[in-house]
Design goal:
four-stranded antiparallel beta sheet, single chain, alpha+beta, globular, six-stranded antiparallel beta sheet
Length: 306
């Protein structure tokens, strides 16, 4: 299991500065690698919101005792005083980011960016900027450098702006086009290892290539080429983490004929070469300990996990 999170310095959180209008209390990410599942139920929190971003795969959440399967490209919002119950399954290949935030203006900030407060799940699109912003917030909360609380709050608001922009652009797409783009995304998910000719695919929809690319990017947040590339890299990460395939074999499996080109693309996307990524993941392997599993989210009620 891969986990990484940071939280506000406890001594600073206890001083008078905790009355800030918006505060990122903690932030983290979780990705299953060997454990079959990770169920979690957290206690009620009177003050904090919790926002999840499903970056890959899917996760299972409960609202009012009803289960909802949330797929990649969506966010989940839990409001204060709501029980947070969710489970990740290894077979779903989930990559999930989360953030706890609070403050006197937290609700107003969400409303300003048109984040729905009367529901729980909303579409956000799949954008590399989301993951990058979460990682920067995690790092700031771990390093606790000067003004890190203001900086993380700014990063969080910047991410909400991107979400709001993505939702606005999605509304401008007609129902028929939306269905075609969703079908295209599903097709790319099933066939990302093959050579996909975007021009030919657009022609099959009786669209111009330019219109298809523009509509796809508006709806998904990435161009078709970038979306296919992101699928290849995410699946390459899983293979590097969980198998002993060589770099060349991984390259071929995810659809790259040239291992050197694959390595360049992989490093550009992740910041590490495939070999460096595999080494770092194995060096950071988390122990199989229930208490370590609970570190994925703070305030776990261990007696209520199911």
């Amino acid at each position: 299991m891969y986990i990484n999170f940071g939280s506000i310095n406890s001594r600073q959180a206890a001083d008078g500065s905790c009355t800030a209008p918006l505060t990122v209390d903690s932030c983290g990410t979780c990705r299953l690698k060997k454990h079959a599942s990770l169920p979690t139920i957290t206690r009620y929190d009177e003050n904090a919101y919790q926002l999840f971003y499903i970056a890959a795969g899917k996760a299972h959440f409960w609202f009012d005792d009803a289960e909802h399967v949330v797929t990649a490209g969506h966010m989940v919002l839990y409001r204060p005083q709501e029980e947070r119950r969710y489970i990740y399954y290894l077979e779903d290949h989930p990559e999930v980011f989360w953030v706890y935030f609070s403050g006197s203006e937290a609700a107003a900030v969400l409303q300003a960016h048109e984040i729905p407060l009367d529901g729980h799940v909303f579409y956000s699109g799949i954008m590399p900027e989301y993951k990058n912003t979460f990682r920067r917030m995690i790092q700031e909360l771990q390093l606790c450098q000067y003004a890190y609380r203001d900086y993380t709050a700014g990063l969080f608001q910047m991410m909400l702006v991107l979400v709001s922009r993505q939702r606005q652009e999605r509304r401008s797409i007609s129902g028929t086009t939306r269905e075609q783009i969703e079908a295209a995304a599903a097709y790319f998910n099933e066939n990302y290892t093959a050579r996909i000719n975007v021009d030919e695919y657009a022609e099959s929809l009786h669209m111009s290539t330019a219109w298809f690319i523009r509509s796809f990017k508006q709806y998904v947040g990435l161009s078709p080429a970038r979306y296919i590339q992101s699928l290849r890299i995410v699946n390459a990460q899983r293979l590097l983490e969980r198998t002993k395939y060589s770099i060349g074999e991984v390259s071929e499996i995810v659809g790259y004929d040239n291992p050197l080109y694959f390595s360049r693309v992989f490093k550009k996307e992740t910041g590490l070469s495939p070999a460096q990524y595999r080494k770092a993941e194995r060096a950071g392997e988390q122990p199989s300990d229930p208490q370590e599993e609970d570190a994925c989210t703070p305030n776990i009620d261990k007696n209520r996990n199911s």
